[in-house]
Amino acid sequence: MLTAMAAAAISEAVSSTPSYRYVVYLQVEKDCVTLNNPKTGGPTRDRTYQAYDQFGDPIVATITERVLAATGGLSTLTDSPTSSSSTGRFSDQVGLLNSSLQVGTFNAYQYFVTTIPGTPWVNVPTEIRSAAGVNMVLGVTMSHWYEGGKNIFDVKYNGDAGMGGLPICGK
Amino acid sequence: MRKIAQLIVCWALATDVACSQDVIIQDARIKTLNPREAIEEADVILIAVPLSSKDLRGAHAYRDTGGNPIALVEVETTLRVLQVIKGPSGSHELSFRFYDSRESAQIGPPRGPSGDSNSASMFFLNQDTRGFRALVDVFRPDIPVDWLNGRAALDECGTPSQCIGRFLLTYRESDDATRFAERLADNMAIVRQVNGYVQALELLQEVIRNASPPPVRHAACVEMLRWYAMEAASACLGSESPAATPVLQRRALLLDQLKRGGVAWIRNRIDTHDDNELKRYFEILKRSDDPEVRRIALQVSSGAQ
């Protein structure tokens, strides 16, 4: 569905204005772990997405995420399931609170739409490229459990290896 | 049951935060900072270092997307002012209010009200009857400038937009080179949005030209090759970059588009209707150390006159 919407929008943009710069994809440029995020009291998985145009150049665009619950509605796990960035670069941090109220495994689905201000390119679902491949939607699994008296956290995208093998942010 | 628990906590702590959990507020701005809009909307823009933060009261607010209200805490953060970019100067310390979220999982951009204590940032604030308040809530209301080692003084830098561009893309000897280099990719995106294609290019060229230390120069070249494949100097395409081949391929593609699309293509690419900006851009291309770029730029600019 999202792929079809994206293809239709690209087709319209290209046919109406051939020299139009539009967002072709978001590239995951950073994927690392902040060990002790002061806002959660635990680790977060931090990813940065950069918008690229049809020439392979970075482009200034509004990137808006949509975080959905497993039921299909907007997630209530987060304060703002539709947060955005206006610079073409979206910094995302994902992690559960270090709190007994958030223990267990929580699933959400995340996708992104892009807008180029002042053009008809508005809220177009945009594919995500990373070392793991190309996706329209990311399945995000957040876990928090206790083991041997310790808090253990993890965040996985589409069932990948999670935070274990990722570099520490800023190192 | 929840109400009773709250009353007990309220009685035990006797604080505003514990006792006012059910206030529904209308003035929360649960959104991220848009730098270009923030420059216009802010009454005050300053470079400052957070010194301390204290809770003022608990509150609830509805999200734009509906659902149950979310719990927030209004906090007051005190800053040590290093430099004022917009608004009246004179204060060495200033406090601002911000609605912080503490009960939800983190999924999205980093949250505020600031970065670490003693870590410099550029803050965008409004003034109201209660004092200063952040332009946005929940998310960070500031742009980190933590490479500044407690010093901000920048010479005359023009309008707030120009100052912000200069702050984010100027390396000075007193700065922390590693932190400056780490922040460059984020800052480049901000400066492209705020200052436009040509000014961001000019500032980046300055960083590369000004004999910056290796980590800064390397990061600046990486950004130059990513954002400006056609305009990048050969110095950045040398051994410093393992990505020379794809950049040269992109350059060839862009030059072909330039030849075919002429001035209209350039205007669209650099997103300007300003003839002076267009002229400045042609001058940059004509100074390129790639003879093919110079040749096509001359050809296109002479056709435009």
If you had to describe this structure to a student in words, what would you say it looks like?
The complex is a heterodimer of chains A (171) and B (305). Chain A contains one helix and ten strands; from the N terminus they run αββββββββββ. Chain A has 171 residues and is mainly beta. In chain A, strands 1, 2, 3, 4, 5, 6, 7, 8, 9 and 10 form a ten-stranded mixed β-sheet that branches. Chain A is elongated. The model of chain A has no long low-confidence stretch (mean pLDDT 91). By secondary structure, chain B is α+β, with helices and mostly antiparallel strands. Chain B is elongated and about 70 Å long. In chain B, helix 4 packs across helix 5. The mean pLDDT of chain B is 89. In chain B, strands 1-2-3-6-5 form a five-stranded mixed beta barrel. Chains A and B meet through strand 2, strand 4, strand 5 and strand 6 of A and helix 3, strand 4, helix 5 and helix 8 of B.
Which SSEs are present, and which pair or pack?
The complex is a heterodimer of chains A (171) and B (305).
Chain A: H1 2-16, E1 25-37, E2 42-52, E3 62-69, E4 84-85, E5 89-95, E6 104-115, E7 124-130, E8 133-135, E9 138-147, E10 150-157
Parallel strand pairs in A: 1-7
Antiparallel strand pairs in A: 1-2, 2-5, 3-4, 3-6, 6-7, 6-9, 7-8, 9-10
Chain B: H1 2-13, H2 16-19, H3 35-41, E1 44-61, E2 70-86, E3 93-101, E4 106-108, E5 121-128, E6 131-134, E7 142-144, H4 160-168, H5 177-209, H6 214-227, H7 234-237, H8 244-270, H9 275-286, H10 291-304
Parallel strand pairs in B: 3-6
Antiparallel strand pairs in B: 1-2, 1-5, 2-3, 5-6, 5-7
Helix pairs in contact in B: 4-5, 5-6, 8-10
